[in-house]
């Protein structure tokens, strides 16, 4: 779009669009301005955070010039008829970026990057529209570079954090291994206890069985002895009864048990071996 000056005086009331237009030679001067989408890049802008850390940032924006702002930019900003949009945008953009970063802590810039860009976009949009009538389309934080000292401190902090995590992992590993050893020791102790209990129970059972066997054996022997004694007593009783009823039974039993050999020693006054058997002498 364009505006026309005639002998230095602006004669157009509205911006002139593309097309064929009348111009008085040597008298009229046509001043043009680009109204399509354009970009502006601001690099290596040093800003300071709330903790006094220097940060270099790069900011890029896209903008358009509405028709209502054409004559204002052509003849009310800068020199008459001179289009210098970039130089007008630069200080406004730098100021709004400095304002936003001055409220941020350096360590939180990366985490709050989207929020920071949103605040800068809002401030720049209001300023460009209010001062120049320029329409902001988009704004991006193209780069953020920290100072070497801050980077070194961040690396040291990260290293310390990694060391702490590594130490914590070591503690966890040692604790886990200790718990594993404790579990194994408990299991082995339980096995030994169970084994000892089994052996003790087996010993007790064996002793009980041996005791019961001994008791049964003793009872059997006692019963056998009782039966033998009773049998012997009955025999003695029967023998005694037989002897009492017939005295010859003793002599008969003695003769029955004699093996036919004469005793080699005769005691007493009797010289007859038969007398020892208490047998009657055979008549001559």
Report on the architecture of this protein.
- The protein is of the alpha+beta class.
- It has helices at residues 70-75, 85-101, 113-131, 148-245, 248-257, 273-276, and strands at 2-6, 9-10, 28-32, 38-48, 54-64, 135-146.
- The strands form 2 sheets. The chain has a 3-stranded antiparallel beta sheet with strand order 2-1-3. A 3-stranded antiparallel beta sheet has the order 4-5-6.
- The chain is rod-shaped and about 195 Å long.
Secondary-structure blueprint of this entry?
Layout: E1 2-6, E2 9-10, E3 28-32, E4 38-48, E5 54-64, H1 70-75, H2 85-101, H3 113-131, E6 135-146, H4 148-245, H5 248-257, H6 273-276
Antiparallel strand pairs: 1-2, 1-3, 4-5, 5-6
Rg from alpha-carbon coordinates: 67 Å
Low-confidence runs (pLDDT<50, min 5 residues)? none
Helix amount, in percent?
40-55%
The gross shape turns out to be: rod-shaped
Largest sheet: 3 strands, antiparallel
Summarize the helix and strand pattern as letters: EEEEEHHHEHHH
Q: What multimeric state do the chains show?
A: single chain
User: What share of the residues does DSSP label as strand, in percent?
Assistant: 15-25%
Structure class: alpha+beta
Q: How many helices in DSSP terms?
A: 6
Our measurement of the CA-to-CA distance between the termini, rounded to an integer number of angstroms, reads: 192 Å
The strand order across the widest sheet is: 2-1-3
Total strand segments: 6
Rounded mean pLDDT is: 82
């Amino acid at each position: 779009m364009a505006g026309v000056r005639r002998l230095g005086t602006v004669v157009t009331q509205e911006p002139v669009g593309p097309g064929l237009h009348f111009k008085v030679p040597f008298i009229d001067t046509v001043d043009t301005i680009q109204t399509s989408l354009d970009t502006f890049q601001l690099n290596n802008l040093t800003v300071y955070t709330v903790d006094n850390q220097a940060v270099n940032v790069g900011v890029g924006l896209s903008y358009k010039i509405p028709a209502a702002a054409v004559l204002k930019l052509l003849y009310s900003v800068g020199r008459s008829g001179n289009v210098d949009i970039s130089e007008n945008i630069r200080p406004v953009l730098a100021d709004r970026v400095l304002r936003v970063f001055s409220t941020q802590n350096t360590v939180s810039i990366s985490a709050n990057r989207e929020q920071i860009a949103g605040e800068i976009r809002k401030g720049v949009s209001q300023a460009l529209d209010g001062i120049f009538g320029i329409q902001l389309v988009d704004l991006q934080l193209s780069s953020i570079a920290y100072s070497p000292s801050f980077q070194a401190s961040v690396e040291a902090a990260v290293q310390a954090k990694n060391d702490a995590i590594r130490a914590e992992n070591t503690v966890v590993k040692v604790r886990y291994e200790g718990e594993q050893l404790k579990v194994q020791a408990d299991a082995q102790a339980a096995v030994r206890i169970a084994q000892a209990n089994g052996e003790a129970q087996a010993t007790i059972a064996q002793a009980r069985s041996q005791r019961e066997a001994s008791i049964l054996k003793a009872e059997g022997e006692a019963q056998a002895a009782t039966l033998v004694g009773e049998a012997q007593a009955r025999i003695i009783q029967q023998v005694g009864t037989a002897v009492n009823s017939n005295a010859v039974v003793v002599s008969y039993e003695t003769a029955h048990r004699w093996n036919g050999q004469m005793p080699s020693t005769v005691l007493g006054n009797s010289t007859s071996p038969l007398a020892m058997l208490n047998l009657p002498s055979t008549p001559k």
